[in-house]
Design a protein that fits this description.
Cytochrome Bc1 Complex, Chain A, domain 1; single chain; alpha+beta; 5-stranded mixed sheet
């Protein structure tokens, strides 16, 4: 699963893939012969495909680390590291790193002190003091607010002065026992030291930015050299950094990415950590994220898919820069990375440059394999989430993963249930019975490397209920156990898979992600092509057998999101409305090719999550006007 900002990037990526697939496609067996593999002395692997149709190339480095590689107390650090990898290096993003370094050291010392102070206070005291501070801030005069502006140092200094002037125990805090003092310790003094430290972090960071930081130099360098699709993403299973460039800029990519791997500088760490924490807060208010996270936390008891890619807020606020540096050292080593280069390149030149720029980066000790496995579920699990969003249902069945031969049957099962307009759930639940606002979705997740689920999600269409939709889904599942699917239906699904595979392998991007995911998910890029052959061997009897074995009540987790209206909630069409990613994607795909390309290019040019979200909202209004919104569907 990606964060909100990354989901918008994936929307653009999905459309881009579709656009790329409009050209002539290569066949899988031919492509497999064209993939060249070599490994540097430090263990870094390169996968190269020469395609000379156009003078461009797709470049990516995927690291074998995602949220599944984290552990309790250290969640969300993979995603945080992804953010920090755009902050530059010792040679990029700075006017003078030697002089700038003292600012980093000072802010690290202060930041570490804030973590310690908050821990000593205890969270209940901290929250009480924070609420009190908000009230004091709200009482600042207009003149004081105008004088402060956006200067957090001046704001916190005035805040501390005002609270200290209220006496040893301010009236607003006196009623709560042991809040301010206990056992001779003054916790209010600790809190005021905390706010003072954060003000000083802000002051030092502003000075660092003014005097030494070259903002967005990595981004600007790529953009000035003709880049497209410069982005990154963190998932449960991996972290990837990629860019499309003119092929003659390959040495630039080698230079920049080897520098990022070898000597990143996580400048502005404490303020960027706040950005990631704000993303965590936004996720806490996103109805789909809330449901997904609760669902995964119940469906899994041992597998690390039980915590979100964004991590838990309590873990993020205790992460410091030293911890991030160590996480980078161990997980971003060359022997834990695979580079993929697809396009108008020459293999010999790629090898020569790879040795020049990457081979000197030292390997690190290999990380132990994740051995934790999810135990068999012994009974149905159910949970209910209350939210002001529309009701939604999620059903998850534990399933095997590759290379278990039964895993490949789920590649067919998901299409039987929800693979287009002729699929079972589309025809029965959405089209004929009209129980849902959109066709039910069926997919596997939340990751692919470790024990996972086949997940069914659906939103009832008013006045139908969650119970009605759930019962209708089970009716279709029971048929799979007793009635073999027709050979014609199976052939249709295999034809669809064949078409998708052929289309995907018709672009640099599609080829790159196919071999990359094979390497990450299976440990061997060849496996994605082998899997394609295995899918074609699935029989109707296999579908019946696997359905009867895994799609049973004791193996499932069921989540309901029930609608509870909140006072003052935004009405329909107001700012609080959620963007329906599925409907928005369908709308974009319905546009003429030149309009789709313009949308993709606009997404690619955006430098912030906020900008991308605003543009997505604009597109969502257009989609609703064109009949793609749920209100129109109803």
């Amino acid at each position: 699963m990606f964060g909100k900002g990354e989901r918008l990037f994936l929307l653009a990526l999905a459309v881009t893939l579709a656009l790329c697939c409009l050209g002539q496609a290569a066949f899988a067996q031919t492509l497999e012969e064209k993939v060249n593999e070599f490994e540097l002395k430090n263990g870094m692997k390169f996968l190269v495909v020469e395609r000379h149709e156009a003078p461009v190339a797709f470049f990516a480095i995927v690291f074998n680390v995602g949220s599944a590689n984290e552990w309790p107390n250290v969640t969300g650090i993979s995603h945080l590291l992804e953010h920090m990898m755009f902050k530059g290096t010792e040679m990029m993003g700075t006017k003078d790193y030697k002089k700038e370094k003292s600012y980093i050291e000072k802010t690290d010392e202060l930041g570490g002190r804030t973590i310690a102070l908050r821990g000593e206070m205890g969270e209940w005291r901290f929250e009480a003091f924070k609420d009190f501070s908000r009230k004091v801030l709200g009482e600042f005069t207009d003149a004081e607010k105008e004088e402060i502006g956006a200067d957090k140092f001046r704001q916190n200094r005035l805040l501390v002065e005002k609270i200290r002037a209220m006496g040893p125990v301010p009236a607003g805090l006196a009623s709560r026992k042991h809040l301010v003092e206990q056992n001779g310790r003054n916790y209010l003094d600790m809190y005021l030291e905390y706010e003072t430290a954060w003000g000083e972090i802000a002051r030092l960071t502003d000075e660092q930015r003014s005097n030494y930081i070259v903002n967005n130099e990595l981004w600007e360098t790529y953009m000035n050299n003709g880049s497209r699709m410069l982005n990154a993403g963190t998932s449960n299973d991996f972290t990837v950094y990629f860019v499309y460039l003119p092929a003659n800029r390959m040495e630039l990519w080698m230079t920049m990415e080897s520098d990022r791997m070898d000597s990143p500088v996580f400048r502005e760490f404490w303020t960027e950590r706040d950005v990631v924490m704000e993303e965590r807060r936004l996720s806490d208010n996103d109805p789909d994220d809330v449901l997904d996270e609760a669902f995964n936390s119940v469906a899994f008891t041992a597998c690390p898919y039980k915590w979100p890619v964004l991590g838990w807020m309590s873990d993020l606020r205790t992460t410091d820069r030293d911890e991030l540096v160590e996480y980078h050292r161990t997980h971003y080593s060359p022997n834990n990375a695979t580079a993929v280069v697809v396009g108008d390149v020459d293999l010999a030149t790629v090898k020569k440059m790879a040795k020049k720029y990457f081979e000197s980066i030292p390997a690190q000790e290999s990380l132990p394999a994740l051995e934790t496995r999810e135990p068999a579920q012994q009974g149905e699990r159910r949970l209910v989430i209350e939210h002001d969003a529309n009701p939604k249902l999620m059903i998850g069945y534990h399933k095997p993963i590759h290379p278990d031969p039964e895993a490949v049957v789920f590649d067919v099962l998901t299409d039987v249930l929800a693979g287009g307009r002729t699929s079972r759930l589309y025809k029965s639940i959405y089209d004929e019975k009209k129980l849902t606002a959109e066709p039910p979705a069926v997919y596997t997740g939340p990751g692919e490397r470790y024990d996972n689920l086949m997940i069914i999600s659906a939103e009832p269409k008013h006045p139908h209920t969650l119970e009605e939709v759930e019962a209708a889904i089970y009716e279709e599942i029971e048929k799979l156990k007793t009635e073999p699917i027709a050979e014609r239906e199976l052939q249709r699904i295999l034809n669809q898979l064949d078409s998708r595979m052929t289309q995907t392998l018709g672009s640099n991007l599609g080829i790159a992600f196919t071999v990359m995911m094979g390497e990450i998910f299976r440990g061997d890029w060849h496996a994605m092509f082998r899997q394609y052959d295995l899918v074609k061997e699935v029989t109707p009897e296999d579908v019946m057998s696997v359905s009867g074995k895994y799609l049973v009540p004791k193996n499932r987790t069921v989540a309901y999101r029930v609608q509870v209206k909140k006072e003052g909630a935004a009405g329909e069409g107001e700012a609080g409305e959620e963007v329906d990613q599925q409907a928005l994607r369908a709308y974009i795909m319905s546009l003429p090719q030149e309009e789709m390309m313009a949308i993709v290019q606009k997404f690619q040019s955006m430098r912030s999550e906020a900008e991308a979200m605003e543009y997505a909202k604009e597109l969502w209004e257009q989609a609703k006007a064109a009949g793609f919104g749920k209100d129109k569907a109803e």
